[in-house]
Amino acid sequence: MADFPYTQVTGKLKSFFEKIQQIGKPELIDKKWLASIGLTASNDPTIVPVLKFIDFVDSSSKPTERWIAYRDKSRAKTVLAEGIRKGYDELFQTYPDAYRRGDNELKDFFTMHTSAGFQAISKTVTTFKTLCELADFEGVNRIFPTSTQVIQTENKVPVKIMKGSDAGVTININIQLTLPDTTDENVYNKLFEAMKKNLLS
Question: Per 3-state DSSP, what percentage of the chain is helix, strand, and coil (rounded to 5)?
Fold first, then answer.
């Protein structure tokens, strides 16, 4: 079963993410660094596994590219939404609008997909919902789809069939592309330029 981390200090998540934008990028996310930004309580380190789960911190406890991208306030909320989608991929496959779902539906999902007890599941739900409150999923959908979404485009190819009639027949071809999970918009710009050049010319 999947392992969904949770933090016991969800009330500190908002201020923590604000800190990311206010201070320099640390070399290591550990107890010493947490203490340096005022997170000295015994349960404060439970934030770190959550950060790893949503791809803000790597397995070596170092900030990732997503952490750095979040420092840009103009797109911070969509960057966080992308990280949440990546970490909770299985949940979003079940509920594409998981960020809108109520406590009972989320508890049912986590109960079916983890061996955690009732209290842990409740904290898992609270952690997920708190993260979602700080993110902009609608912004992600407006800018570009995530790896779990599909873009469709049509390339109309006219084909004439000469069997007793000069009438032309138009065949519509639907092309589906699965896009990579990245915060670099240049990747998508280049992809769309290639599609325009090769498919729509």
Answer: 50, 10, 35
